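Re-running the complex after MR caught last week's input typo. The corrected sequence lines follow. Everything else is unchanged.
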Amino acid sequence: MGLRERKKQRTRQDMIEAAIALFEERGFEEVTVAQIAEAADVSTRTFFLHFAAKDDVLFESADVRIDLGLQAIAERDPDERFPAVLRRAMDEMISNVGDDLVSGAAALRVRLAATSPTLRARLAQQYATIQSEMADALHKAFPDELHPVGAATLMGALVGAVSAASVAAIHRGDPPEDVREAMRLGADLVLRGVEARGFR
Amino acid sequence: MGLRERKKQRTRQDMIEAAIALFEERGFEEVTVAQIAEAADVSTRTFFLHFAAKDDVLFESADVRIDLGLQAIAERDPDERFPAVLRRAMDEMISNVGDDLVSGAAALRVRLAATSPTLRARLAQQYATIQSEMADALHKAFPDELHPVGAATLMGALVGAVSAASVAAIHRGDPPEDVREAMRLGADLVLRGVEARGFR
DNA sequence: CCCATATCTGCATTGAGTGCATCAATGCAC
DNA sequence: GTGCATTGATGCACTCAATGCAGATATGGG
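Corrected-run output:
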């Protein structure tokens, strides 16, 4: 990595650190981009060169590995039914929420989201993306067993349960492994219902 | 209702109609508040006197009766267990999504949300409110059987399933009763899992 | 008819976000 | 090392959403 690239990452990191410090001190809504820029000693224009929006600076390390979920679906055994595939997919994703959870970045986001509609929206957006991409992949992998509405409903329940569980657990201050366990219980709740009787 | 009040409702309605027409023609993001105000022959300041944000104009008739859900929880039979209570609550709420669904306002929102992050966020916010209020009420009603994280997870799954189902069904152009049926199936999927084995 | 009140309006301001032109440092070829 | 293309940083002007404030105007009640 050349000097140019290193410098770029440095200013980026400066902005992230400045932003986090200010957010922790005053809250998300009370800090302006101009203040972040000033604290990081860059122009506001530079901020938007690195981040599309003010909240993006908090999602730098947000690392839900949706690719692992999609991969789990793609790699299914020919005779494997979708509840089993989903169990693998969710387990893969949950076991790999990493850095973010450990570093406390996720906790900071949840804490700040409590007082910022903008941030809540951004958080929701992330889950919505996972939900719709997975639903799409799922329908394509099991076209005869799951119609589009069914797949969407199923992923809505799964993502809804898992996200609510993680937010609630993080909000409570649980350590990373307990958060993951809460997420697993959430996924299990839904998948149990799917397995109980067939779902469409 | 006096003349003053009628005039107020009239300007409000003018703005709503102007906004809907413009949104349908050009999409949500492509229409400015100034344009809506001009089309309704009022000042932009008046727009914000009636609506806190640009997207609020589309949620005038959004009528998810969360009170019915909370009421269902409050009125529970002493020996009724929470899965049964939740069935009643969800059924009450789903059966009473009314006007909005019939008038096509809900469909317009879903259609516009497809191309507007702002609108998606607003939609998500609505569900999030229902989710957290119900989770809270649920935990308070069954303090020994459902701890806070469990209640949050459960409502996350329920609201996630129902909202995804309704959005998918509406997106498909299903008529109101089919949309409600999709929502019921979503709720059922989750509740079946809860009933299958006890949930915490 | 007069006064309190509520709606509507104009104006100024803040803050997010974008387009554009420019400057300066870096990387690269020779 | 010199020349040149690239690219990251910046300043400036601008749009748009949203808010505060101060008036103008109309309504409704006495």
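None of the earlier attempt is carried over here. DSSP finds ten helices and no strands in chain B. Chain B touches chain A through 42 residues (CB under 8 Å).
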